[in-house]
Every structure is written in C-alpha cells, then in structure tokens.
Amino acid sequence: MSQVETHREVPHRGLITLSIMLATVMQVLDTTIANVALPSMVGDLGASTDTINWVLTSYIVAAAIMTPVTGWLADRFGRKELFLGSVVGFVIFSMLCGIATSLNEMVLFRLLQGVFGAAIVPLSQTFLLDINPRERHGQAMAIWGAGIMVGPIIGPTLGGWLTESFNWRWVFFINLPIGIAAFLGMAAYLPSIERRLRGFDFFGFAMLSLGVGALQLMLDRGGEMDWFSSAEIWIELGLAITGFWVFIVHMLTSRAPFIDPRIFLDRNFATGLVFIFVIGVILLASLALLPPMLSTIFGYPTITVGVVMAPRGVGTMISMLVVGRIVHRMDARILVVVGLILTAQSLYTMAGFSPQMDSWLIISSGVVQGLGLGLVFVPLSTVAFATLEARYRTDATALFSLVRNIGSSIGISIVSAMLVRNTQINHAELSAFINPFDPNLWAASPAAASGDPAALAQIDGLVNIQALMISYVDDFKLMMLVTLLALPLVFLLRRPKYAPAGDSAPAAME
C-alpha cells in the first residue's frame, strides 16, 4: 500500500480497526489511570507526596517531546513497523513499571513508556484515515474519537478499582493482555506503507523539544512551585519561549525543516488545531475538577465518583456513533456549532452546582457535555484532514495530538491555579462576615458565637466548603466562556465535498 489512498485493496478492515483501537485505548488510559494509584505508590517506592508526582510528569513530558517526531520515524522505519515497535515498547515498560521497587526506577520506566507511547495515538488516527475512503472518514473518526475521549473518563475509575481490589501494580499489568491482542491483530492484518526517506532536521527537533518539554514541565510543576514566585518556573517559561521562537524562525527559513510549514497553509487543518486545543482545555480540565469536587465536597468514594461520571462517557459515545454516520451527509460546521452550544449549556448548568444538590444534576450535565463534545470532535477530526495531502497526514496527526495534549495541560493548570487562588479569596471574604455580633451566627451555632473552639472549627469547615464550591463554579464559568469564544472559528472551516466511494481524488471544497 503506497502513500496514496487505495482503499479497495484493504482486507480485514474491521479487525484492523479493532486492533488499532485496543492499542489506542491502552495508551490513552495510561494518561489518567495511574493518577488515583499515586497515594498507594508512596510507601512502596519510598517516595514523598511531592516527589511521587514525577511518576506523572516524566510520562507527560516524554510523550510530548516524542509526539512531533512521529512523522519522520514513520517515514524512516515504516508506519506499520513503528506502530508495532511502539506497542511492544509500551507494554514492556508498563510491566517494568509494575515491578519497580524505587522511585528512580519508576520515573525512568515511565519516561521510556512515554517515549514509546507517543506515536500510538497519531499513528492510529493516520491508519484509520488511510484504510477508509473519504466518505467513511466520519465513521472512522467516530470510533477513534470514542477511544480518545472516553479513555480519560474511565481511567480514574478503572485505576481506583484495580488499586482497591488488587494492588496499584495492576494499573500497569493490565496493559499486557491488551497490548498482546493489539500487537497480534496489527501484525497479521495491518497494511505496510511504502517508506519515504527524508533528512532529519536535528536542530528543528531539538528546539521544538526544548519548547514542548519546558512548557510541559512548567505547567505540571507550576502549582507545586507556586507558579511565578519560583525561579524554576521562570527558567522553564524562558526556555519554552526560546525553543518555540527559534523553532518557528528555523521552520520558516530552513530548506528542509523538521515540520513542513506548508502543512499550515491548509485552512481547515490550521483551524482544526485551534479547535482541538479548545477541546483539550474543556475535556480534561473538567475531568480534573470533577473527581476532587465530588470526593471533597460531597464525600463520594472513588467507585461512586466513577459511577456518577460514567454517563458523561456514554453521552460522548452515543453522539460520536450517531454523528459518524451523518457527518458526510450534512454540513459538519452545523454539527460543530450544535456541539459547542451543548457543551456551553452543560457548563452553564455546572456553574449552578451547590453543596446541597444530589447527583442527578451532575449526571445530567455530564451527559449533555458528553453529547456536545462528541458532536464537535468527530466532524472536527474529519474536516481538519479533509483537504490535506496524504503525504502530510502522519505529521498532521502528530501535531493534532500534540496540540490537544498541550491544551489539556494548559487547561488543567489554569483551572487548578484559579481554584487554589479563588478558594483563599472566597474564604477570606466569607469569614469576614462571621463575628460574635452576627445574629445569624448566634442562631446557627451559639457555641461558635461564644468562642467554643470545636464549634468554630466546624463553622470554618462549612466556610471552606462554600469557598471551594464558589471556586469550582468560577472555573466552570471560565470554561463556558472559552467554549462560546470558539464559536466564531466555525466560519473559518470549509465544507468538504466528498468524492464517490472508491474515488481517491482529493475532495473539493465549497
């Protein structure tokens, strides 16, 4: 199978898709499944509550640095060979993570796991686009998007169940059977792609890696280091700006840059990058906020948190499966607008959360948000690549994944920083009204008004909950505004006119 699209000659398309999605879900799950296991790792690995976070940081930074190089590696070694090698390496280092006996071992193995896992998601998207004709790209992206978006939702729940029922090490051991099944299926049926040798722009790769790595470190460690009051964060910000600036200048002036700048001349793809950045912010930022909110304010155990959040994933899967069948029959831009409006509506509902509500409002808003994000993700993933030349596809899917991950990191960092800052401000403002002369305090707790320490501590706990709830509401309002501000970008997208089945000619544009 060559670089041009020859879809009629691809046998076993269903088995290929199943194998690809097994590998994709395995990799995506690992970005969130280990989070809930961190407290259990502390004692076994001899780590502290601060240093254990490097288990997450090492994986995120390594994956971010290696994602952009996927296109070159695929051209140099072959897409199929790179995909199979990535799955094997990912599983091997998953097992080594599961048997790690010290923090240093765990961080090293997680870093290498991130290195091998970086190519899995962009290659899975590339292959699904390659093996399907253009009129079936919507269905292919629906299946791919379901794994990408539902994986992070079920990851914490699955990780919590494995940790409580067995041991934190099973968070990594579970990758073995999934990886073996994915490898066997892909080794047997995945078509080979003609290799395309091209030079490696080491300087461009180094500058992009510097920018991406420093940015990810800054975003991941910012909250722990109190952001810009720390010299480390300023250094990482400087390195990130320097790396990205030099990379952009080099890309525009070099004869053979690491990433061909002509890829950004495709208007749909460039607009799609902006959109997927926004989706990354909304999806994982809300997922980062809800579990601690449910456990801290509402007192839900880990399993209950997973049950309450599961309908969000169901909503996403339903909308993706539906839109995958209709995206080539109607204007995808309409679907994106409807999806953004539904997402904004769900965040508006979430901005009305209170400590006294039941779980129904959380479930219903989650379903609406899942439906909305699914309506955006599938047509966006389809239209963004509709007019792009096939030879740019692997580089483009790598950039697509990278921008989504950076959006997620930025979104999580912003809402987390706002949460901490606003909680302190809200606590100070609310407690300012509590004094011995307040008749409401006397009515609610005479003991606290009289100065009883135990009663005052109880009142302070109530103030903390209210201050925290207001801060969560402020974050939801911010994400709603970000969603609404993305609406005008729809007008930059152009609708593809799909060619008849079996026609490999590029789609025309309206």
From TrEMBL:
Occurrences of domain Major facilitator superfamily (MFS) profile (ranges): 16-498
InterPro entries reported in the protein's UniProt record: EmrB-like, MFS, MFS_dom, MFS_trans_sf, Sugar_transporter_CS
Q: Which domain of life is it from?
A: Bacteria
Q: What is its main location?
A: membrane
| Cellular compartment(s) | Cell membrane
Q: Which parts pass through the membrane? A: 12-34, 54-74, 81-101, 107-129, 141-162, 168-190, 202-219, 231-252, 273-291, 297-322, 334-354, 360-386, 398-420, 476-493
According to UniProt, the name of this protein is: DHA2 family efflux MFS transporter permease subunit
